[in-house]
Amino acid sequence: MVLSNIILNFKTIQKLLDIVKIILYYLVRIFTLLFSQIFVNYYCNFFNFLEFIMTIDEVLKDIHAIHEHLQMFEEKYKLISSDFYNLYKKNKLEESHDFVEWLGFYEILLDRKHEYRKLLKSRILDYKLTSPVEEEFFQTI
Q1: Euclidean distance between CA atoms 57 and 60, whole angstroms
Q2: What is the largest CA-CA distance in the chain?
Q3: Among 8, 22, 90, 134, which is most buried by a count of CB atoms within 10 Å?
Q4: Whether 123 contacts 56, CB under 8 Å
Q5: Terminus-to-terminus CA distance in the chain, angstroms?
Q6: In whole numbers, what is the pLDDT of the chain averaged over residues?
Q7: What span, in angstroms and rounded, lies between the C-alpha atoms of 67 and 106?
Q8: Which segment of 3-12, 22-31, 78-87, 118-127 scores lowest on mean pLDDT?
Q9: CA 9 to CA 136: how far, in whole Å?
Q10: Do 84 and 78 meet the contact criterion of CB atoms below 8 Å apart?
Q11: 38/25 Cα distance (integer angstroms)
């Protein structure tokens, strides 16, 4: 009983930390849009630092959690996220709260996939490979 409560509390804390990461990401994005180049430099340095300390397990957890959020938008608007992203970036869609949020999640996903590729490259030799992996593999997202 006590052990199950501890496990539930630990999972709750992990979810809260994931939410805090996403909130921090949005706060930094807002400040970079509103303020000077100083905040842009801070944003880059801050997220480079976060990526540096993230493990591949954390990156994978983020990717899976983000997919849940993206799926919600995809079902609501009947549009897959990559198509939404292309349309939005080409200014084909009006700006709405949902679209800005969807865009944010999708851009976080792209960042996490990029980080995943970097981490995978550093540990690819841990896997039993039948042949060498070409450099192009790590460039795809």
Answers
A1: 5
A2: 54
A3: 22
A4: yes
A5: 43
A6: 79
A7: 9
A8: 3-12
A9: 42
A10: no
A11: 16
The structure tokens listed for 84 are: 């939404």
Q: What is the pTM of this model?
A: 0.60
Residue with tokens 């995943």: 116
Residues ≥6 apart with Cβ < 8 Å to 118: 51, 138
User: For 89-106, how does the pLDDT look when each residue is reduced to its tens digit (9 = 90+)?
Assistant: 999 999 899 999 999 999
**Selection from 89, 101, 85, 88 nearest residue 26 by Cα:** 101
**C-alpha dist (Å) from residue 34 to 31, 40, 47:** 5, 10, 18
Percent with pLDDT over 70 in the chain: 72
How many residues in the chain?
Answer: 141
CB burial string 100-132: b at 16+ within 10 A, e below: eebbbbbebbebbbebbbebbeeeeeeeeeeee
Residue 3, pLDDT score: 47
Q: Which residues contact 123 (CB under 8 A, 6 or more apart)?
A: 56
